[in-house]
Amino acid sequence: MEDIEISKIDQELEINALRRVIGAYLDYSAAAVEDAQRWERSYSKLSPSHKAILPHLPKKYLQLRRCISKNAFFILNMLQVQGVEQILSSLIAYEPPFDMGYDGSWNNINSHDFETEQHEIENNDETLSRNLDSSNHSEAIDRPEYACSHAVANYPTESERMCWHEQDSNGHFLPSEAISNSVVTPSESQAIHGSSEDLQSGVESFQVGGHLDSLFRRVIHSNVPLADVDKVRCIVRNIVRDWAEEGKVERDQCYKPILEELQLAFPSRNGERPPTCLVPGAGLARLACEISRLGFMTQGNEFSYYMLICSSFILNHTQAPMEWAIHPWIHSNCNSRSDEDQLRPVRFPDLHPGSAGITDGFSMCAGDFVEVYSHPSQTEAWDAIVTCFFLDTAHNIAEYIEILSRVLKPGGVWINFGPLLYHFADAHSYSPEDEMSIELSLEDVKKIALHYGLKLKKEKIVETTYTANMLSMMQNRYFAAFWTMVKEK
Ligand SMILES: C[S@@+](CC[C@H](N)C(=O)[O-])C[C@H]1O[C@@H](n2cnc3c(N)ncnc32)[C@H](O)[C@@H]1O
What we know:
The structure is a single chain. By secondary structure, the protein is of the alpha/beta class. 43% of the residues lie in helices and 15% in strands. It contains 17 helices and 14 strands. Strand 6 (276-280), helix 12 and strand 7 (297-302) form a beta-alpha-beta unit. Helix 1 runs antiparallel to helix 3, helix 1 crosses helix 5 and helix 1 (2-44) crosses helix 10 (226-243). The chain is globular. It starts with a helix and ends with a strand. The model is unreliable at 92-145 and 147-209 (pLDDT under 50).
């Protein structure tokens, strides 16, 4: 009885967390348009003589709105292809829908602008309309979908946390609690056929299926917290880091040394039982994907719905390299050398996961690292663990290291890469909770590792960026700790 009560509460927490994340994705366009409007208003306040020096700016703002539309097009398709509209319908059936401050009026300025923009785009003669073919999406993917693991679930304590993803009967990658009330039909998913001219023309029309489109409109002008919309913008930047040609410089700084080290530690990987590798905090899963391509049986672990929705789309639903284009850098006018730099499209995925030679058994496990890998079934389960920009996400880094050591096989290898920018260090400034945050020096972190039987074999500091705009006039650089430790036998 008690269990049932608990699971109901947890189900509600999950549903609210997912609702909030989807709300943020859906609100992306309105929030970005609001920025554009603000910039336009500032321009309109210029004196005629100043306007005369900058006559190109109104055109820039129009282009910017087109870029927003293209980003929104990607987001909506990402949500739709994964059956999010069905999830949303079930959420709405479950209890009153989004508390998004919808006031019943679609004539507010944002929705009007969105429609005008769409209309303009649709009427452009050069536009090659993207047809959304709802009939054959599932047939179009002739490769295995990357499975999510199942394990004993603990329960989320934060809005962003979730427990498990499961595959539906069609192998789609969805949060288990959320799909428990919904049926996801692939026939409702839509394949996209675009052309390179389409993307190059800088304009495109799009149609997004009725239900999701109407949901999108319902959250326009909503009360989605700005911090949530910011997370969507971060995801857009993470797409560049993990899945675009432009992110290669960063990936070469962070992922390449890790991959080289893994190959050194496990020179033979072709046997019947390939070495297993766990990647906690996998983000958009490129590193896990690359490790899998090297012949490791790999599991990425991730707890953010923002990340999971996007990585699932890229892993399971992209159909060709460079199929998509987004404009990741439009959200700020600061530190651009030119408007062209700011508005430039970035194509992805540079690597098509479906034909990338991923090793069998690749999976993404959705859930909080501490909760998932504290389970006894995980003890001494992994030959290798790779953490990249992950350790400092801990409330208690000692707990992370204790678990990492426990789940590693004796003689197993832990490769870490990242700074110590403790994620909860500033929590007191935004969270009403008294969030625990253990913030240790690198020296103390290594002391804890040693305590748990992890012997340092190699260590260096590597300079790198994280989701940087390579063309920006401002660059944040990290001096990341990169080490290999081996668990004592
Ligand atoms: C800074 S990002 C790094 C992502 C990726 N490793 C990379 O290098 O691009 C940290 C990631 O860890 C995830 N994360 C944070 N705490 C987590 C936890 N307790 N369990 C699972 N994932 C977590 C975040 O959602 C985020 O995707």
